[in-house]
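Mods, move this if it's the wrong board.
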Amino acid sequence: MLRELHIENVAVIERADLELGPGLNIMTGETGAGKSILVDAMHAILGARASRELVRTGAEKAVVCATFDSDPCQAWCEENEIECDDELIIRRQITAEGKTSCRVCGVPVTTAQLRTLGALLLDIHGQNDGQHLLDEREHLRNLDRFGQLEPELARYREQYQAYQALCKERDTLSTYENEKELLTESLRRQIEELERAELKAGEEAELTERSDLLRNFEKLSEAVDQAYDLLAGRDDSASALAGEALSEIERAANYASELVSLPEAVKGAVFTLQDAAETLRDFRDGLDFSDEEFDRIETRLSLLRRLERKYNTDEAGLIDTLEAAQNRLDQIEYAGDRLQKLESLIQKQAEQTRAAAAKLTQARQTAAAALEQQVERELRELSMPSVRFHVEITPLGGDPGFQASGADNVRFLISANTGEALGRISKIASGGELSRIMLALKNVFAERDDVPSMVFDEVDAGVSGVAAQRVGEKLSKLSVTKQVICITHLPQIAAMADRHYLIEKREQDGRTRTTVQPLDSDGRQREIARLYGGDHITPLTLASAAEQLASAAAYKQSRKKGEGEP
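Not the wrong board. Structure tokens:
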């Protein structure tokens, strides 16, 4: 549940703080007062794209901060190593330069992470959702979501992906067959060149090291000779002097007990110097320079580096390139045989895919029947008593007769009035009917998801009279199981509020400011009277508002009794 929403320097809102509660939270206000800005702020909290135009003129940054119950997102927090207790705080900041930052419980997160988190917390339905409903490409996804068909869809896609892999291999081999002669000649030249090079892993590094040694042979020999002489090659060498020092220290130790342990330490140093000298002597004796060896190494390195430049890779890559070319040549040479086998495998896999698609279709038909019943029941409660809602499932057709989503075309059809044939929603439904159909579907789908809060932004377009009353009742009923936040212009819906907020725009000190204030019972009555009659509030409109509030209270009381609430 969304507990609190803090907005600072967002468009015309300088500062607003909302404390929201469970049930139905209603927001009303004049057109242009800034109601949609609140929805923009909620979208920002959910990780939606936020531009610098959102920042209030003259401000350095805009800030939106929201506090949610943490229950729905404990797994997400653990996965992202974020600690939260009983509340989760999301903060989004947008600077006047367009830079944005996001934090969850003080921890920086990306907007992608925020979108994933937001999908667990808040479901926003805007004024354009009715148009979204007209997009028949979404009907299939909506049906699968309602039927919770993810396991069936996953099993089907496993078969479909196997079919796709075989088709891809067939297409590749068909290309080989069509260009067999040209490809074969090219690959054979490549293989011959790389095999002739007799490539060995690690050879280039060894040759480079040996080449560096030979190139610096004279300097190396001179340094080794001089080092050996200094260590052991002359009378005053380090080893000789250390040996003399050892004799004197051993003699001194006979007279001073403090020096007893020193001869062993010096003896170790003498042995170390002698070992180092022997190592230098052996290395010097093993040094051998040959012009022929140097030329051979340089020629070999030149060949390896030329091949690396030609194939744009390193030594290991040349070996991989040779192996890949040999494998590809084998594929080409045996492509005809493999193609024959593939055609048989593809046919067999197509049959398995169609069988999986048939099971998916059957599951969709079952889900469609349940969806039809629930949507028709919802629509009857929304003053559409004669409505027929039908989920049409038809074969995809064509060859192979299936695709990534299965073998079905799905679209929602409706008959709004008795005697009318079923037709596309876009052709049959009026604006008010479209709003109610969308609300019915959202209500049905909401029963199948775990998102705890729903936002409706003026989804009551085109609705009035009794239909508006029913929409208000439907939102009230939905708010029993979910927190509902609704922006509306209709008094019938506003009267159903458990909490009512007034959004007002005023001019102060030469600036436009929008405020959001909770209304008490008297404030609610005056605001509903305004929704009925405009700014000219009369005793008659106040009486109508009081009657509307009383009617809403009676409905909620009867609903609670019917649902067994205390």
